[in-house]
Amino acid sequence: MKRRSVLLLGMLFLMVGFAAVTSTLVINGNARIASNDDDFDVYFSASFENGKKRNSLIKDDTHIVFDYDISMVGETYTLEYDVTNGSREYDASVSINCTNSTEYLGITNEFDEETNLLATETRKGTLKIELIKAYVGETTDVEVSCEIVGSAVSREEVSDGTPADKVKSAWEITEDNDNNGEVSVGDLITLGSESFYVYNIEGDNVSAIARYNLHVGGTTMDSSYTVTPIENPTGLQDPSARGAVGEVKENGNIDEVFPFIGVVPYTTEEKYNQASEGVAEENKLKPNDYSISVIKEYVDEYATKLAELDGEIKTTRLITKEELESVGCDPNKYSCKAGYNYNNMTEDARVAGAPEYMYTTSYWTSSPYAEIVENVWSVNSIGNFDNNNVNNDNDLGVRPAFFKT
């Protein structure tokens, strides 16, 4: 019998609960002395995944959540975390209860429950998960949970210490489109140096597209369309990296404004031949397949850079034709621009159009053009939604989208 080892997905939910401290002492029926509930505050202040700091796992003050694949016997996952007593007036008595080990997983958690966590101080804990038995069957999810409960303990004097800072989201809303203080469609959100326009929200899932193209590839200096490699490309977004820019004139011609910065081919003949080498003809991928493109390499490198900014990003890739259609781009009219039909270069009120931020740069999508195996859907900064040959290296750039929960 063939044994098939598959991945286990582990998820951790840690919660800090608070015992009520609301006892009231009544003196002569008039004076009331109550506990200071507002001062008692126990929270996660840091988390480390397999030795690497990952504060993005802290979803709020009292919850840590992680996903991890584990498949080899003896493989371990280690989560270290800091619990801080932010109170100055109360110590905390801490108790903990974790999921027991299972047939396949050995689960241990080290955290000092015997000693009160003093006001303003921090205590470390370590959760370790080990695969102790080979698993055979369909991939399954195993929930691992720990609940840490902190109960207030009175002190005789107020602590003069300084508690560790709470973890704040690395994201900022830099343009609040509807002024509601929350992330909404149309908002510009920023992580470090990188900004993104939110174009879709479904439940807790947020989809956003880069404000600018990546500073990679080359520069088209003039109408000769000769491309010069960029010196010292950053691999990050850059305001100058917009690919082809220009405007449509009254006669329908396009007035191009050079230089076009950050232009790249979708793929190259060399790259495609490399991917096809040794592959049977019937199994070869098409030249416009995203998985073997040069573009994907740029996007993957950018994803690594974003991960270093600790922004809780689930997936980084290129936007698709279908996603652009969902926000108003019309492939039949070859247009993302409201009121304009690029199929015949005329104004057309029937074209709903996408938000302008979806076509402020010229960029590739990841969607192949069905009719031609060497063409891919793309967007131009004038609002054109069309297809281009994969070898086009002079006017389109890399504009990643990301997806987070």
Relative helix content: under 10%
Strand content: 35-45%
What is the gyration radius calculated from CA atoms? Answer: 28 Å
Mean pLDDT: 86
Low-confidence stretches: 1-32
Distance between the termini: 40 Å
Q: What structural class do the secondary elements suggest?
A: mainly beta
What is the helix tally? 3
Got a strand count? 29
Number of domains: 2
Task: Please tell me what the overall shape is.
Answer: elongated
> How would you sum up the major sheet?
6 strands, antiparallel
Going across the biggest sheet, name each strand in turn: 14-15-16-17-29-23
Notes on the structure:
Residues 1-32 have low confidence and may be disordered. The longest helix has 15 residues, at 294-308. The strands form nine sheets. The protein has a six-stranded antiparallel beta sheet, covered by helices on one side. The chain has 405 residues and is mainly beta. Helix content is 7%, strand content 39%. The chain folds into two domains: 8-154, no CATH class; 210-404, no CATH class.
What's the short version?
This protein is mainly beta. The protein has three helices and 29 strands.
Architecture blueprint of SSEs:
Elements: E1 8-18, E2 24-27, E3 31-34, E4 42-49, E5 52-53, E6 58-60, E7 63-64, E8 67-70, E9 76-85, E10 90-98, E11 105-110, E12 122-131, E13 140-154, E14 171-175, E15 188-191, E16 194-202, E17 205-210, E18 218-220, E19 227-229, E20 246-248, E21 254-256, E22 260-263, H1 269-276, H2 294-308, E23 313-318, H3 321-326, E24 340-341, E25 346-347, E26 363-368, E27 375-379, E28 385-389, E29 400-404
Parallel strand pairs: 1-13
Antiparallel strand pairs: 1-8, 2-3, 4-5, 4-9, 6-7, 9-12, 10-13, 11-12, 14-15, 15-16, 16-17, 17-29, 18-19, 18-22, 20-21, 23-29, 24-25, 26-27, 27-28
